[in-house]
Amino acid sequence: MTGRFDGKVAVVTGAANGFGLATAERLASEGARLVLVDRAEEALQAASSKLNGLAVTADVSSESDVDEYVRRAVAEHGRIDLFFNNAGIEGRMAPMTELSVDDFDRVWKVNARGVFMGLRAVLKVMKPQRSGVIVNTASMAAIKGAATFSPYIASKHAVLGLTKSAALEGAPYGIRVNCVAPGHFDTRMGRDLAAQINPDDPQGVLDEVSKSVPLHGRYGTATEVANLVTFLLSDEAEYISGSLHLIDAALNAG
Ligand SMILES: NC(=O)c1ccc[n+]([C@@H]2O[C@H](COP(=O)([O-])OP(=O)(O)OC[C@H]3O[C@@H](n4cnc5c(N)ncnc54)[C@H](O)[C@@H]3O)[C@@H](O)[C@H]2O)c1
User: Whole-structure pTM over 0.70, yes or no?
Assistant: First the structure.
């Protein structure tokens, strides 16, 4: 059977859980050779042995770790065709007046700086190839504000800006760059946010949030994000670059 990604080399960050893992599973099932990156070593090893990928334990907020995961990918496979630049953290939810600068920096370092450093290192490989496709994980937080979530909101607006800039930089080399913007999803991060909003009744928060989702009235699944990401990484999306792709069951349609 031929797959959409036969023989392609795919690097996925945040690959041990959630969207990264679901996307890595789909890429592997359609023929890609995987380089899986995460800082959660044990979960990463489990994912890589299941998917037969190269595991690189790395913190995407560290410049040397980012350069190292890209170096390992090229040393193993000689090229990078697909990059899912996805690792991110939610940080602490609180009004700005109750946040420390450290709270801000912690989120910014992973979500904005980490995405920038990943783009920089991978584009250095893709430009001489004159090919490659990149998807960054933004969020609906890239297009709206939230009173108690400013570091995350700022970092995801940055991901959108980096996506547009990288798309223009990559275009002369035939490189496409997009970002996905998920709404509410049932992953560890989605459940942690519910627990931050109401530590006494996270299930109550999950139920209320579900009711607010116009289509289906539920949280989305990581597989549903993987469906969109792999479409954007595939040749079917050849004319799509520089854009944000909401996946939110009409939550932001109003
Ligand atoms: N879950 C949601 O509702 C939702 C909505 C919109 C956007 N997002 C974004 O989707 C992406 C993936 O989130 P998820 O829901 O799959 O969360 P998750 O917590 O299930 O998975 C995130 C993975 O990234 C890894 N990671 C975190 N920081 C890292 C670092 N510094 N270096 C290396 N690896 C690191 C974690 O170990 C984990 O395996 C994030 O960028 C997140 O902001 C999530």
Answer: yes
